[in-house]
Amino acid sequence: MNTLRDTLYQLSFAQNKQLYIILDAARVEAMPAQLFELEDDPEYFSLFFDTPQAELIDVAPYLVKVDMESRLLAWMLDEGWGKSWGIFISAAMELEELFEHIRQFLKAKDPEGKELFFRFYDPRVLRIFLPTCNFQEIIQFFGAVGSYMAESEDGEMLLEFSKGETGLEINEYQLGLSNYADNS
Question: I need a labelling partner for 72 at 20 to 30 A (CA). Which of 64, 136, 143, 181 fits?
Fold first, then answer.
C-alpha cells in the first residue's frame, strides 16, 4: 500500500506535472505565518490578494507551489490530513496561470442570485460539488488542470478527480494509515 506522499508523486511529478496545494487559512491557525516559517522562499498567492476581500488575509485560501521535499508538504500531510485543511492540484501550468484560472471560481450565486463565497478548496465541498457537475461545467472547472485531489471523508483514501472523455472521473487511492508523509 502506497503512502500519501508516494501517491501524490505518482499523480503529479511522475506525469510531468507540478503539485500545488490550496490551504484554507480559515481552517489552519496562523496559516500566513506558518507558510513563511516552513518555507524559505515560498511560491504562493493568497486567492484574496488584490481583491475587496484582501482584509480577510488571515482566513484566505492560499495557492502554494510545492515539491516533494517541501517542509510545507510534510506539515500538511502530517498535521493536516483528515482535517479538511485544503486540496491538492496537479497541473502542467505555472503558478500564475493556475492562480488566474482558479480565482474565477471563488464566488457563486445562490438560487436567489445572491453572491456567495464558493469554498471549492475545502475537501468536504469539493467531494460534493464535482460529482454534480455536467460535462460543460467539468470542462470549465478543470481547464488545463490535470486533477484535483482531496482526502476522503474518513481520511483513509486520496480521491483524485479528473476530466474524462465524457465527464468526471474519480479514482480512489487507499493509503497506509500510519505516517502519511513517510518517505519509505
Answer: 143
Cell numbers 506558518 correspond to 34
* Cβ 45 vs Cβ 53: under 8 Å: no
Q: Which residues of 85-112 are buried (b: 16+ CB within 10 A; e: fewer)?
A: bbbbbbbebebeebbebbbeebeeeeee
Question: 18, 4, 13, 55: which is closest to 144 by C-alpha?
Answer: 18
148 pLDDT band, cuts 50/70/90, is very high
pLDDT digits 0-9 by tens, 92-118: 999 999 999 999 999 888 889 998 889
52 has pLDDT over 60 = no
Q: Where are the domains of the chain?
A: 4-174
